[in-house]
Amino acid sequence: VSHHPTIIACHSEGNGWKLWADSNLKTKFWGHAIQLDPVGVLTLEFADGEVFQWSK
Q1: What is the rounded distance in angstroms from the CA atom of residue 52 to the CA atom of residue 21?
Q2: Spatial separation of the C-alpha atoms in residues 50 and 5, rounded to whole Å
Q3: What InterPro entries does the entry give (predicted)?
Q4: Which end of the chain is more exposed for a tag (fewer CB within 10 A), N or C?
């Protein structure tokens, strides 16, 4: 977790599931505008072992 560069992380648990993620920002400066694109992975795991992952 960091402010410069921006890096975020989260973790959450509920009855029968866990969720965790990390993300940072890819930045582009276009001279008159700035573009911020999130980059990272989000993982959702259920108690039965099933896992889903999303990439940003």
Answers
A1: 12
A2: 33
A3: OSBP_sf, Oxysterol-bd
A4: N
